[in-house]
Amino acid sequence: MPERARGEHGPRDLRLVGLRKAFGSAVAVDDLSLTVPAGSFFALLGPSGCGKTTTLRMVAGLETPTAGQVLLGDEDITARRPYERPVNTVFQSYALFPHLSVEENVAFGLRRRGRKNVQGVVAEMLAMVELAGFGRRRPGQLSGGQQQRVAVARALINEPEVLLLDEPLGALDLKLRRQMQLELKRIQTEVGSTFVHVTHDQEEAMTMADTIAVMNSGLVEQLGSPRELYERPATRYVANFLGQSNCLDGSVVGIQGDETLVEVHGVRLLVPGRLGSPGAAASFGVRPEKALALPWDPALPADAAGRDAALRNAVPGTVTDVSFTGLSTQYVVRTAWGQELGVFTQNAGGEAPLQRGDAVVVAWRPEHTFPLAPSTTAPPGGEPDAPALGPAVPPTMAPLGS
Amino acid sequence: MTAVLSAPVLTTEPADEPPIPPARRRVPYLLLLPGLLWLAVFFVVPLLTLVSTSLQTGSLEEGYALTFNWSIYGHVWTTYGSQLLRSLVYAGSATVLALVIGYPLAYAIALKAGRWRNLMLILVVAPFFTSFLLRTLAWKIVLADDGWVVGALQSVGLLSDTGRLLATPAAVVLGLTYNFLPFMVLPLYASLEKMDPLLLEAAGDLHATPMTAFRTVTWPLSLPGVVAGTLLTFIPAAGDFVNVQFLGTPNSQMIGNVIESRFLTVLDYPAAAALSITVMVGVMLLVLAYVRRVGARELL
Lengths: 402, 300
Prior knowledge:
The structure holds two protein chains of two kinds. Chain A is α+β, with helices and mostly antiparallel strands. Chain A has helices at 6-9, 52-60, 102-112, 119-128, 144-156, 174-191, 202-208, 226-231, 236-241; strands at 14-23, 26-36, 41-45, 67-72, 75-76, 87-90, 162-166, 194-199, 211-216, 219-224, 246-256, 259-264, 267-272, 281-286, 292-295, 313-324, 328-335, 340-346, 359-364, 370-372. Chain A has two domains: 6-231, P-loop containing nucleotide triphosphate hydrolases (Rossmann fold); 282-374, CATH 2.40.50.140. Helix content of chain A is 21%, strand content 32%. Chain B has two domains: 1-54, no CATH class; 75-299, MetI-like fold, CATH 1.10.3720.10. The A-B interface holds A 1, 60-62, 81-84, 87-89, 91, 93, 95-99, 108-109, 112-113, 154-155, 158 and B 196, 198-199, 201-209, 212, 216-217, 220-221.
């Protein structure tokens, strides 16, 4: 059995090249290529059924790809059996061995590779996941959070080049999940292995990962740091899967310097970058917390609402819903053409809140606008397990801008 | 019996719970009543009768009297020791054979059969739809000297030209194996089916080869089934007399045949009773030792 190779090779990137997996006629993963830099905390984010778990299982060797390669550095490990890969997995349901003590569970991988005198290492590992003193118990005698940490220890003790985490926090309650998120991040920093984390929870992905790949229908929609994905989502799907967005569709009027002027139902708005020649269709979005709702007298032109000169984009409308969440006030504004836009106003105090029925302009800076590629996939409007980034919003707002 | 002892525990509530109305407190006892009555009438009373019979002396003509003749136990032990030993050896061989055949079968049904699972389970118990005697008689035909099994074995040289299967110890062991195989397969299936297949993936992920994964995960987790299956095969096989009668010879008798002939033919009731009790106690001690050793954690 090949000994774990980190020492021999130095840190190696995990590379997926043209990876594809079909179950019969159903394509779970479609021509996926990406590189996970050595030592990074990488998240595969997407709704259930998007192919993320299948991708993970192909890296672990538990599924055989229909086509494509899994590489560590330049070494092709596609054909290696799971037990021959320097990769270990933390399973969603932990899959702890019920007939073995916690110690024996953690020591399992080392024993299989013929290591003797494992007590010391096991004790160290249990201490790292804060389970010192639990070694003699059976998994059934532990709480969910403790079992989860045993599963992490059992995988990490093998010093894998890549640790795969398959929705590892899914079974935990919210408070424990938050705690374990920070814990896992700490452990990853400590051991320096590459972590590949599969999750459908965008907040979890953003909290923990250096790099996130948003997957949808077997494809990677966008890859980047949490901040990049949030500030510059490339597609409507990403814009709505990570947090919420107001998405607008219009046509290009012309290029003005570095910005494109786009007309949306008669309202002219500026979008950074060059979106195309005049007449071309253009889509873009803005985050609800980047927009302001300003009181406005409909007798005056929209431009006349008193506002900061930088807020050059403005869409008139009527407030149709107001909800106060403590942290912020969330408004739904209906535009003249019937689209509902969300506006989150931070509760800094001072301003008198708007009322339902008030005429407003929704205004934002052009530089906060992000152009959207025409999405090939449906927006995740009805996705039940895509939690909102902010506090709960009224259901009318769920598919913002759709 | 433990069920009887622990029954009152069912109604024991923490101190701060409101008291249970007396009518409801009686429910566990009422549920146990039919079973207890059955056991008393058909097990405890006959068992005591059996013990008392074994200690009587006399004859059918003069009548029997309870004389506490304990020496009968020494007598049957020395007289029928070889049949006792043979019973254990035959039953043990049949149990091992049933495990060797039954484990892969149960494994395949539990983990590999997919949608054929139920059909295969039905096939396992299908022999039960015909009578035990008929099935054993059928084996007599299958293993007959002019039957195709003997012919085939002779033609490939596994059996000499005058060799036979019927009336050999092998035939008895094969018959026992066949008759009690479902008792081995079903508990094995139940314990293997309960196992989370993800555990095997986890073992593979943790550098265990498929063989090691079987040895360290599947086998230990199926031990309760192994223990139950071997007991359910061994205990009835040790007391069986039908297979020897049909497939064996008079000089390869098992203890069941001796008891049967003592009771029904020779009418030597005390010896037959003493033998029955010897077998019962002997098997019970063996089972206890076995369960202690193999399945202590899972069963006790």
